[in-house]
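Dear V.,

Thank you for sending over the compound details. I've combined the ligand you provided, 2-oxoglutaric acid, with the protein sequence from our construct and run the structure prediction for the complex. I'm sharing the raw inputs here so there's no ambiguity about protonation or stereochemistry in the SMILES, which I know was a concern on your side last time.
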Amino acid sequence: MMSLVAAPMAIVDLASTAQLQQQAAAAAAAAAAAARKQAMAADQQAAGDTTTTMGGEQELSCSCLMKGVRHLSDSGITRLPDRYVLPAPDRPGAAIVSSGSSRVKLPVVDLASLRDPSQRAAVLQTLDAACRDYGFFQVVNHGVQRDVTGGMLDVARRFFELPLAERARYMSPDVRATVRYGTSFNQAKDAVLCWRDFLKLVCQPLREVVPSWPQQPADLRDVASRYAAASHGLFMELMEAALEALGIVPSTAGGVLGELAAGSSHMMTVNCYPACPQPELTLGMPAHSDYGLFTFVLQDHVAGLQVMHGGRWLTVDPIPGSFVVNVGDHLEIYSNGVYKSVLHRVGVNSTRPRISVASFHSLPAERVVGPAPELVDEEAGKPRRYMDTDFATFLAYLASADGKDKTFLQSRMLLL
Ligand SMILES: O=C(O)CCC(=O)C(=O)O
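Below is the predicted structure of the protein with 2-oxoglutaric acid bound, written out as structure tokens.
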């Protein structure tokens, strides 16, 4: 038992240790800030940007903005540049905070239970209800090792810490490039920029594309390819479960699953949302739905993802080590509207950077997707609700005027 004399000594020791730690931390932070400034100056020189520091933050050049938000955040800006300020009706209303009434615990799909024949039916019901109602759920007990998920988040964070000149090697205007580094949502078109930098990696066929992925950090290819393989495995398992829940008979389901096993489309977006000086005025990503069948999101412990439900934006409470999974446009179309591809967006905050990894899984790009014949029956009051679609239709939609006032999914709906 500790004596009464020893206790105050211990407190004094702890207090002084804390002071020393604070001093050491302050010195380390000052050194890191100086190093960052030096690295930024080198970056600016490398990229030929001499206007950045001359006119203050409101006069940031366009080329500087296109260097992304990590670059801006590192420069220590205290006011959001105008190009990031959303019109008042589109603003998130409030910065993402760590707790609050609009936080949501999404339905949870336990994969260990799904794999247990005695519990499978109950889990299928949970999955089915989640896809019909929220279009979103969290997957736990999935069996993907922590070193794979944690390793992916860690290598993602280290990628965005690389000097800009290294990251910029992967900038490309080609949306079909197997590797693409960029900023905002669609930087060529966005009238207002988003507070996000990203690295997009095409993941299919994995062995063929990995050699084109970034060489730095040195373990990125190994870690990200192990993660991509695990994500694809889970996708196949959840697709099989979703088809079963929809009542699509195994022979037909075998057809779609067989097609997916033979070749699918799989793209991974690694997102970086640095701390933002005025998070209430902007978004990390605007409201959108996803194009494919299912999207898997791996996020760190910082909240940011918001889901539209019942006319309100709800912030998803992250469950460490889990995946947030959402129904994409293709699955809404294939299920003839039974499952919902729901709008979601990303809010940012002023203190904590956030990393997420979104994996988009679907059928091959050239495959035409329409409602499953099993789910269309005019006489039973289940008319076909969507036109067939493929990637070319999607690209045509992006280039058309339709994109201004309709989502892609709305543009594929049949008027009944
Ligand atoms: O960062 C997130 O949580 C979501 C990312 C997302 O919606 C996307 O990449 O499409």
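A first observation: The first strand starts at residue 103 and ends at 104.

Warm regards,
I. M.
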